[in-house]
Specification:
This protein is α+β, with helices and mostly antiparallel strands. The chain is about 60% helix and about 10% strand.
């Protein structure tokens, strides 16, 4: 949009006529989030509460438009990166999230673990080292005292508080494990996501050549990374009538990770009565 026309439209946000505002709003919402700095300048120079409120709502709408576009692109990516997906969810609440600062905090944890790893360790031993640093040294845990808080779903908040929910903690665990070279995949286990360590060749050696699964063992990040065997997981699924078993015991696409995270965010907003945010998350979920 022409800069002069943009400024003219933004100046009309002061107009008391609702019809004029609706026209201006429709035009501005056609633009990208790049016009937000101009809107912020207008907000700072305005002394009219109605105008400031209109600008705040416009900025929120444009930021959401950007988040929606990023999520749509992430879903369509042939190899979506979990960290990028986590950042998209963070952007919903924190559009100016300091991505570099978040990466630095993750690198600090990763480096602590990496220094204790070596090629002579088995996958199980490497997972044990990761569990020790993540849950004992750094103190990550499920936020049982406030499990429905939306803050549990945001990576930047989880890194600060060391608390998340079962979905965000599992997502963070898998992401960190992969950065350390561990073959970690998401398992859509009922009510409590798991992370699986996969290796087809080793799985055939351990579980027999007829084995159809590449899963070696399962990890429960919600319980300090406790290890479960395939036999234990299948027993639990059968006992609680979860069928087909493969749906809940075999690796699922990374997109499902972020979908489950958004579902937990949607549920959190519902529980605390934030209807508007709940509706917006529902819009994001429709992209899957």
């Amino acid at each position: 949009m022409n800069k002069n026309r943009l400024k003219a439209l933004i100046n009309l946000l002061d107009d008391p006529d609702d019809l004029v505002f609706e026209m201006v709003e429709q035009e501005l919402l056609k633009e990208s989030h790049s016009i937000i700095p101009v809107l912020e300048e207008k907000w700072e120079s305005s002394f009219d509460e109605t105008s400031q409120e209109r600008i705040e709502n416009l900025i929120q709408d444009l930021q959401f438009k950007k988040t929606r576009m990023l999520l749509k692109g992430w879903i369509a990516s042939p190899e979506p990166d979990l960290l990028d997906g986590f950042f998209v969810v963070d952007r919903f609440q924190y559009p100016d999230v300091n991505a570099e600062g978040v990466r630095m905090k993750i690198d600090k944890i990763k480096n602590d673990v990496w220094l204790e790893l070596n090629d002579s360790l088995t996958l199980l031993e490497k997972v044990t080292v990761l569990n020790h640093f993540l849950f004992n040294v750094h103190g990550f845990t499920v936020n049982h005292n406030n499990i429905q808080s939306p803050q549990n779903c945001y990576l930047n908040q989880m890194l600060d508080t060391k608390k998340g929910n079962p979905v965000s903690l599992s997502l963070f665990y898998a992401m960190l494990a992969r950065q350390l070279g561990l073959p970690a995949r998401f398992i859509d286990f009922p009510k409590n996501p798991l992370v699986a360590i996969v290796d087809r060749e080793l799985a055939m050696k351990v579980h027999g050549k007829k084995s159809q699964s590449e899963v070696l063992f399962y990890i429960n990040p919600s319980n300090k990374g406790s290890i479960a065997s395939r036999k234990e997981v299948k027993y639990h699924l059968k006992k609680n009538n979860y069928f087909p078993e493969e749906k809940y015991s075999e690796p699922r696409p990374d997109q499902l990770f972020i979908r489950r995270l958004l579902e937990s965010l949607h549920e959190a907003f519902h529980s605390v009565g934030f209807t508007e945010k709940e509706d917006r998350v529902a819009e994001l979920l429709q992209l899957f």
